[in-house]
Structures are given as C-alpha cells and as structure tokens.
Design brief:
This protein has about 375 residues and is an alpha+beta fold. It contains 13 helices and twelve strands. The protein is about 35% helix and about 20% strand. The chain has a five-stranded mixed sheet. A four-stranded antiparallel sheet has the order 9-12-10-11, covered by helices on one side. Strands 3-2-4 form a three-stranded mixed sheet. The longest helix is centred in the C-terminal third of the chain and has 22 residues.
C-alpha cells in the first residue's frame, strides 16, 4: 500500500532513486560480440517455425514493430530481414554480474528487477555525490567502459517516477524528475503508465473517461473504487506521484518455477509425466540450493487451443524434498485433462516460501490465550 507519509523518522521526500535499464540487453550483447550483427535488425529468441518468441529485439528491429514476447513468426512477417539469434543466458548473466558489481560499489541499496534493470537508492553513496544525476552519469559511463553497452537511467524521488523516467529517452537516455517537476511530468501521462495497470484495467479506466493521470486525480476515490475496486487507493496515490516503497536490496523470492512451450504438442501421457517430473526436480533442487522451503506446489498446463489451467497443493509444513515435490506435481497433473487433450505448455512452480519448514508456533498460556491478550 502506498501512503503519503511514513511513521518513522526517515523523510522519503528527499530520497534520490535511480532506475537503470540496459538498452535492448540480450540483442545488444549479441551485436557487441558479433560485428556482423551491428546496425542490423536482430531478435534473440526461438525459431519462427517452432513457436519461438522474441526475448529481445534490437532497436533496428523495433523500427519494424518487433517487440519482446511477440511470436517470432509474426516478427519475421513484420521484418523479413530479421536476424534471429538463439539466446545465451550464461553470457547474459556474466555481463549482468559485471553491471551489478558497478552498482554495488556505489551503494548497497540495489534492488534487482531482472538481469538488465535495477533500482538504486543513492541518497547516500560511496562517491559522496549529492546530485543523483551525477551518480547516474558516472554509472552510465562506467557501464559503457566496462561492457561496451549502453544503459538508460531515470532519476527521481521515488521508484515509480524513476522507472517511468528511465524509459523516456531510450536508448542511452538520462531523464531527471526533480521534486518540483513531479506534477508537470506525470499529469498528462496515459493511465497505462500507472503501476499495476494492464490492458484490461486501462480499457476499463478509459471506458469511464479516464485517459490521463490528471483524469484519475480528478475523480473521487469512491468513483475509482467502483471502477477498479481495491486498486483505487494505490492508483490514486501513484497519480499524485506518491510512492514510499523503499529500495529493497534483499527482496525475498516469493516463488520459483520452470516451464516450457513445446514445438510439437505433447499427446502421450508418459511424455507429459516425464516433463513434469524433470521440472519438479529442477525447482526442488533450487529450494535445496537456497536452503528454503515451499508450502505450495503448482503446475500449469496449456492445451493446444491455448486454454490454460493451474492446479495447486499446499501443506502446513514446507518442503525442499525432491521426491515430495515430484509426487505432488504428478498428483496434480492427474487432476487435469493432460493425456486426453494435446498439451502446448507445461510448468511447475513452488510458492509460499520460508526459511524454516514449520510456520512459527503461537505460544499460549495456561488459560489458552496468547500472551498479553
């Protein structure tokens, strides 16, 4: 929940937050490493004849309308000269580690969002630089010098504004939203800019005449609650530029999963069970490496007609036992129509994670009440 003030002594209004986003990261790494790809439309992802999707598109490809998450078959129709490169995530992770090392040399308050973007709180920083824009300039220069790549940065008093600002002048951009400029910066932004507003919510807002953040701000909270329900207070606060969320360097994982879209539909139940078994072992091994426990196991099945179902099973005690996760995932599979209908996608994930297998015990006194009741 976003609030306008904080009850502790920290004054969030004077924070200096950066959002740094590498430009067309995967595609830029490939163009850097292969001179033949430079200044050409490049898409990193799967083949168009195997249901591949675009993981990243170079700016040359974006001029043709090619975008991330687009089916590669459509990307090729939009850009017949598109060069498709298979992803090399080990290489991308190595470059990402170089970039994040630069961030953490400046401030310990670094919140990763993905391999290629992060928030940084540079209110206090190792360079003792009072102006966040100068920190951003130095970091951008270091990234270019270290990796040969460019990054875009947004500088603002909070995370919401910094995120919007970083995308303002891509690639290699730098946009500063000073506290006194917040209102002018956001009032005419479209409702899609609001955090948590997807296409359906945006369409609902527009159906009620809400096109810009200024329109949202002008509506009474009760009207917004009728339109978007529990999202209303959150969206109204963002529309006023309020966002007190801190940069969280050690944000705990809420879930982890593995899924795969198949080039040919799976029909045989033995094949489907084998895939679920392998995915369940993969996520259970992740639990063991992280020394955390999961209470919930979930599977996802997408049939050939794109109908998608999920099935979950939760227990009071968490587990990291591989065989336990596998058996629960396979039992959930039996509650679907897999084997009766062709399957396009399968996934296994674990949720409700904790550092201990058992939830905290609530101690009661001899009268059966909690202490201090």
């Amino acid at each position: 929940m976003i609030t306008k003030g904080a009850k502790n002594s920290k004054d969030f209004s004077v924070r200096r937050i950066l959002h740094v986003d590498m430009d067309a990261f995967y595609a830029s790494v490939e163009q850097r490493d292969n001179p033949a790809l430079r200044r050409r439309p490049v898409a990193v992802g799967g083949e168009p004849n195997t249901r591949g999707v675009v993981a990243a598109a170079s700016y040359e490809a974006r001029e043709f309308g090619v975008r991330s998450a687009m089916p590669m078959s459509r990307a090729v129709r939009l850009c017949p000269a598109l060069v498709i490169v298979r992803p090399d995530f080990q290489k991308y992770r190595a470059v990402s580690q170089q970039v994040f090392a630069l961030y953490r040399a400046v401030t310990p308050l670094v919140e990763p969002l993905s391999l290629d973007e992060a928030y940084l709180d540079v209110t206090e920083n190792a360079w003792q630089e009072p102006l966040a824009v100068n920190v951003a300039k130095r970091l951008k220069a270091q990234i270019r010098e270290t990796t040969g790549l460019t990054a875009s940065a947004g500088v603002a008093p909070n995370k919401f504004l910094a995120k919007i600002a970083s995308g303002w002048r891509k690639p290699d951009g730098l946009t500063v939203v000073a506290p006194e400029r917040v209102d002018a910066f956001i009032r005419n932004l479209p409702v899609d800019a609001l955090w948590g507003v997807g296409p359906k919510t945006a369409a609902r807002l527009r159906a009620h005449g809400l096109e810009t953040l200024a329109d949202v701000r002008a509506r009474p909270l009760t009207d917004l609650q009728t339109i978007v329900g529990s999202l209303a207070e959150w969206l109204l606060a963002l529309a006023h530029g309020h966002d007190d969320r801190p940069v969280e360097p050690n944000r705990p994982s809420k879930s982890n999963g593995s899924e795969c879209t198949y080039s040919t539909d799976l029909v045989a139940m033995a094949d489907i069970r084998r895939e679920i078994d392998e995915m369940a072992r993969e996520v259970a091994s992740w639990l063991g490496r992280r020394q955390i426990y999961a209470r919930t196991v979930t599977i996802k099945v997408r049939y050939s007609d794109f109908t998608t179902v999920t099935r979950s099973h939760s227990t009071r005690a968490g587990t990291q036992d591989i065989e336990d996760v596998v058996s629960r995932a396979l039992a959930l599979l039996d509650k679907t129509q897999a084997g009766q209908r062709p399957v396009r996608l399968l996934g296994v994930s674990v949720h409700n994670l904790s550092d201990a297998p058992e939830p905290p015990t609530r101690h009661v006194n001899d009268e059966g009440r909690l202490p201090f009741e």
